[in-house]
Here is the input.
Amino acid sequence: MPVLPFARKPAVSVLCLGVVLALSSPATPARADVPNQTADSVRWLVPLRNAVSGGAPKVDWPTKGRARIAVPGVGTMGNKDSGVKSVPIASVTKVMTAYTILSDHPLEAGEEGPIITVTKAEAASYPRRKAGGESLVKVKAGLKITQREALEAVLIRSGNNMADILGRWSAGSPQRFVERMNSKAAELGLTSTSFADTSGLSRYSRSSAIDLLDLAVAAMKDPTFAEIVAMPSAKIPMNTLNTTNRLLGRNGVIGIKTGSTKAAGGCLLWAAEDEVRGETHTIYGVMLGAPGPLILTNALKASEKMVVSSRKALRRVTLVKRGTPLLSVTDQDGTVSEYGVAETVAVTGWSGLKYQFGLPIDLVPGETPSEITVKTGAESIGVALEQLS
Here is the structure.
């Protein structure tokens, strides 16, 4: 089962989410001034569970709808309303459509891939679907289009008909392809997600804020997917495609996908880059259920506020300073010594970021520790100790 980037439901097997601890100098080996001795007792001088001062990060959350923001390798910045409730997601569904296609038919970045030919039935359905108000791309019987061009039509223009064409090409029919989409969701551990179509037009194509952020990270690991969702426009046979994601290219936004139906409201699954101390991080966010009457416009406006405020919140934070007494060690002679970290521990994070201290799991009983673990999210990093007194 592929592993997921964000801490989530306990029953799901996930990749531990954590901050890679960046010390003020390279990782420090066990210090010579930590004696190799036996200890009668080791006592913590600080609470084991802590949070960066300043309270919850100052995110400009929407007043209505559901939203969530997280940064792989750091943690979850927070969410508005339930992160686990399954709701209609409209054309955000096409992220899974494209992810499944690229999982089953991988493309190198820039590669066009195989040729897909539009059938007579697919061309004949265009007028009826257009009259029904669907988002479509122009096609005709016998039109030849590459796999990449078809993915551009799905992700940039949000073409419902091209999502179906891709499904038929890949699995024999759109319905069989939907089964494949649901299998991929299960593989990713997306327990609040199920699909009824390739496009999201159906109100029964549903997901949750937590699941969608996991899906976004998985999809963005594919270079072709990431390349396409970052494109504001493209030309394919019979069509000039313009993105529906008007945030693209502003405030570090590099993708991903809009969606809007009466059942789903306005939706946007987004990714934005930000740099902290020369290191680039990707912030992932989702807005679901923006109200009307301009549901997509409202989703974009709400998402832009989240993007701007989350980038401001992301910064360097100090977890523990060198010289802070952390441990008290009493040796067999009754001598008490205090220890702290050999270097100040600072990470990329935000106010309110939770972390905790611990002893190495391989510490032998009675042994004086030469390091401690600092855990953020669910990843533990060893940090060398030095004797303070």
DSSP finds nine helices and 21 strands in the chain. The mean pLDDT is 90. Residues 22-55+317-387 form one domain.
